[in-house]
Specification:
- The chain has twelve helices and 29 strands.
- With 566 residues, it is α/β, with parallel strands linked by helices.
- Among the domains are: 35-274, HUPs (Rossmann fold, 3-Layer(aba) Sandwich); 357-464, Ribosomal Protein L25, Chain P.
- Helix 7 (222-233) packs across helix 8 and helix 11 crosses helix 12 (335-346).
- The chain is elongated, with a radius of gyration of 31 Å.
- Residues 1-6 have low confidence and may be disordered.
- It binds adenosine-5'-triphosphate and magnesium ion.
- Adenosine-5'-triphosphate binds at residues 43-45, 53-54, 56-57, 240-241, 271-272, 279-282.
- Adenosine-5'-triphosphate binds next to helix 2, strand 10 and helix 9.
Length: 566
Amino acid sequence: MENTQVQDMEEKGGEVISRHFIQREIDKDLKEGVYDHVCTRFPPEPNGYLHIGHAKSIILNSSLAKEYGGKFNLRFDDTNPTKEKQEFVESIKRDVEWLGADFGDRIYFASDYFDRMYEGAIKLIKKGKAYVSSLSAEQISATRGSFSEPGTDDPDRDRSIEDNLRLFESMKNGEVEDGAMVLRAKIDMASPNINMRDPVIYRVAHMSHHNTGDKWCIYPMYDYAHPVEDAIEGITHSICTLEFEDHRPLYDWVVRELEFENPPRQIEFAKLYLTNVVTGKRYIKKLVEDGTVDGWDDPRLVSIAALKRRGFTPEAIRMFIELSGISKSQASSDYAMLEYCVREDLKLKKPRLMAAIDPIKLVIDNYPEDQTEMLTIPNNLENEALGDRQVPFERELYIDRDDFMEEPPKKYYRLFVGNEVRLMNAYFVTCTGFEKDEDGRVGVVHCTYDPETKQGTGKEMPRKVKGTIHWVPAKEAVKATVRLYENLVDEEKGVYNEDGTMNINPDSVKVMDNCMIEPAIAGAKPYDAFQFVRQGFFNVDCHDSSDDNLVFNRIVSLKSSFKLPK
Ligand code: ATP
Ligand code: MG
């Protein structure tokens, strides 16, 4: 946990609420009258799908707006015409909505501000604060200096305002080739902060833009565009990640020189990193493009679309973001904590059914062949509101392969020849023998039951047994496919190979296509989630499942390595 040292504890009505440093900064701004309201934004670049890291920014920004009775904007930072796609715009909107962040009708596109950004550039030129440079990108970076050396002045630095206006106009009119000229802010070539050494603020790029088409052949650079976007929208607190800390002086310079009233201020926080998963749009994109995973919403990924498909809930993601805290110091959150959150969220909400994921037959030899008893079983012992269901009990059942052993080790309390166990919600059975298939694997286990041990009759059990196993009635069982997931990468084994490729876990998905589930599962629809007792939480896959063959994703197993810190 990374957050404790930077959080304040505040007492409100007897309840102790911890406040993170951004809340304290906003409190201070409101108290000192710097702002009289709060407006935040989430500014994704529509060049890929959102991931769990973005969820942190979305939840942080939207919760702050809500907490202070302010507004939260969704703004597509689409100033770079090369990479953007409508597909990503749609998916981002969907994901932000799904997370429950309320942007109302405040969806904006940075490209809608291109005119104002252009006017801003003219204003800077007129103030003598920007100039057209003919240096190439390489020359600009070669003359930028280093941490110890100041930069060298651009030969065009003292061009006249008139010439700058004329040249910038011809850049805009398409008379200049890509890369032949740029507009640079005139700040300080000797600044200790390299970002302030006359940064490029406009470049020429003869490219169509998904929103503005061919209207523009000059495009603003991020460090210029972003503060202008924020200021135009009346953002008060522009919250971004730590890598922009060194860019803050430039942010402040832009809003000051453009003379925005009540300009926004930038506050940085540490990115969310998760152990043992692939975050970072670029890396996810690569896995999608090279076919390692089957799309942006492959359930092994931590894109929001993948988490949704896999059965994670917005509530679980929020809980996780809250537990991981807001701080300025970089740290990784444990993937197991995300799993803990989804278990916590689902455990009372979802019915608990019995499923044999790797089934073998269990035959109760002394149970009458034509008899069926309907057992009434509560759907969730910890939540009566979920009601109960009828499950047929009969002579032939399925159990999980793991629940029988030919040669049991010590402390194995499940089925082995001579041992008695409880069939969950039903009877005690004693194992009498087993049969193997042609391939040498156990196929059928035999047992006898004791009619005096029926559960739920109120009668005291004649004796105790140590093991309880789940079962599925063979005749009524619904056959289904279950996909068991493991992490794509393992930090202990190394995320990257020597050649720079990713070291992908070859067993990241195991497909079990002969699972047997009790009949209550019939009719389950995409995204419906269940606990399969003793095994974990599973949901119906939204792409691959059909009424004829249900396909489930394991959201998370029941076992946990994570303990909530005290
Ligand atoms: P990536 O680092 O995955 O390539 P990005 O930063 O390029 O993502 P943007 O679309 O620019 O993606 O991000 C939109 C917002 O999300 C930015 O304000 C960015 O700071 C924030 N963000 C991105 N990654 C994280 C993260 N891991 N934790 C918290 N916020 C993040
Ligand atoms: Mg980015």
